[in-house]
TrEMBL record:
Pfam families cross-referenced by the UniProt entry: Aminotran_3
Organism lineage string: Bacteria, Pseudomonadati, Pseudomonadota, Alphaproteobacteria, Acetobacterales
Family according to the record: Belongs to the class-III pyridoxal-phosphate-dependent aminotransferase family.
Domain of life: Bacteria
Organism: Roseococcus pinisoli
Keywords: Aminotransferase, Pyridoxal phosphate, Transferase
NCBIfam families cross-referenced by the UniProt entry: PRK07483.1 (NF005685)
Protein name: Aspartate aminotransferase family protein
Length: 441
């Protein structure tokens, strides 16, 4: 057995030795399409020459400088690229090494903002039940993923409470209109503000499109404006976690662009660096930064590797490729094709409850029965069965859900790179369809 602590301590995973474009090869020689980009990370696929050149160039120039003493060119340029044009008023970037660290930074920055403006009584956050924000303690406290929280429940922060996410497939009542369902969720959030005392709430935290926990679930139209209105009424901030769904994954650079609202603080990672380096971050509104600048003068946070020169150089190159090659257009076009192919192949399958997503972020929900939407017994691990069958057929995909709290079906995520071609989409849908039929025969 391996000396590494793997996710499954009973089975050593295959060793990946080479990646090129959409393909990954393991030591045995078996090749798989990286159909989910890991966990929606590899947005350019593997071995992109422009990114590799930029990383080599950075390696020759500067590998590290501590941010207590210096800034560096790649971090400055990356911030300019992301917020130089102030998208939605977001004017500042802060870079860390992962999505969880980004979430921690967002949580703390929101709290410091209220301390600076003289509202230190604000000590609570409202997040959502079906959500995942990371595995560090603050991010895990924000998350509502029951399975991941369970062993750590006694050491999670009591500063977080949870309301329902917008999950129309299961939670909208029969005969309830979209508008009525959204109003019900807004009322639930309002009631939670009232329970906590509206003047005590720091922020409402949500994934713009729910990733791992529910599987690519976008909110209904009007949901985010309604949530934003509740926050605004009570002077609380809106923190959007776009670690998985942002940076182009859903067809626009930021997922909130499709919702008609802008967050006060946004968390990014995955598609920011495309897996070429570990990098995450937050984007913040000028008002948040100004309060800290005019108050104590600095964000009371920090990590040794924040705004790391190599990580920022890689992320900058990834963003340049996305822009120069107009990859958001390809995400939209290939996303539509992927939806079409999956629907043709599996739309009527008796164990496929829902095929949903945006851009190149798609989930297939597996159910025991389409009509009643009854979930499979989580012990059957149907999503894992699909993953295994797909892997045997040369397709990597990402199994989630089901086992989380039994409130939703298992699902499997497909999230190919933004560079994917029509022929590759066909191959992904074909292999995935074969895998589903084999696993759920
Ligand atoms: N937020 C969301 C929405 C995520 O999907 C993830 C990772 N799956 C995280 C936060 C945590 O990111 P990381 O694993 O890089 O810490």
């Amino acid at each position: 057995m391996s000396h590494l602590v793997h996710r499954n301590l009973n089975v050593d995973p295959p060793i990946a030795v080479f990646g090129q474009g959409i393909w990954l090869r393991e030591a045995s020689g078996h090749e798989v399409i990286d159909g989910s980009g890991g966990a929606a990370v590899a947005c350019l696929g593997h071995g992109n020459p422009h990114v590799l050149d930029a990383m080599r160039a950075q390696l020759e120039k500067l590998t590290y400088a501590h941010t207590a003493l210096f800034s560096c060119e790649s971090a400055e340029k990356l911030a300019d690229k992301l917020v130089g044009h102030k998208p939605g008023g977001l004017s500042h970037a802060y870079f860390v090494s992962s999505g969880s660290e980004g979430m921690e930074a967002a949580i703390k920055m929101a709290r410091q903002y209220f301390v600076e403006i003289g509202q230190p009584q604000r000590q609570h956050y409202i997040a959502r039940k079906q959500s995942y924000h990371g595995n560090t303690l603050g991010a895990l406290s924000a998350g509502g993923n029951a399975m991941r929280r369970k062993p750590y429940a006694p050491i999670l922060s009591p500063a977080f409470s949870h309301v329902s996410a917008c999950y129309a497939y299961r939670d909208r009542a029969d005969h309830e209109s979209d508008a009525d369902y959204v109003q019900r969720l807004a009322d639930e959030l309002e009631a939670e503000f009232q329970r906590l005392g509206p003047q005590n709430v720091i922020a409402f935290c949500a994934e713009t499109v729910v990733g791992a926990t529910l599987g690519c679930v976008a909110a209904l139209p009007g949901y985010f404006p309604a949530m934003r209105a509740v926050c605004d009424r009570h002077g609380a901030l809106l923190i959007l976690d776009e670690v998985m769904s942002g940076m182009g994954r859903c067809g626009t650079m930021h997922s909130w662009e499709q919702e008609g609202i802008v967050p006060d603080i946004q968390v990014i990672a995955k598609g920011l660096g495309g897996g070429y380096q570990p990098i995450g971050g937050i984007l913040a509104q000028e008002k948040v930064i100004a309060a800290i600048r005019d108050g104590s003068g600095g964000f009371m946070h920090g990590h040794t590797y924040q705004a790391h020169p190599m990580a920022c150089a890689a992320a900058l190159a990834v963003q340049e490729v996305i822009e120069k090659e107009n990859l958001l257009g390809n995400v939209q076009a290939m996303g539509a094709l992927l939806e079409q192919r999956l629907t043709e192949r599996l739309g009527n399958h008796r164990h496929i409850g829902d095929i949903r997503g945006r851009g190149l972020f798609w989930a297939i929900e597996l159910v025991q029965d389409r009509g009643s939407k009854a979930v499979f017994d989580p012990k059957l691990k149907m999503n894992e069965r699909v993953r295994k069958e797909a892997y045997a057929r040369g397709l990597g995909c990402y199994p989630m859900g089901g086992t989380i709290d039994g409130l939703q079906g298992d699902h499997v995520i497909l999230a190919p790179p933004y560079t994917v071609t029509a022929a590759e989409v066909d191959m992904i849908a074909e292999r995935f369809g074969d895998a589903v039929e084999a696993a759920l025969a």
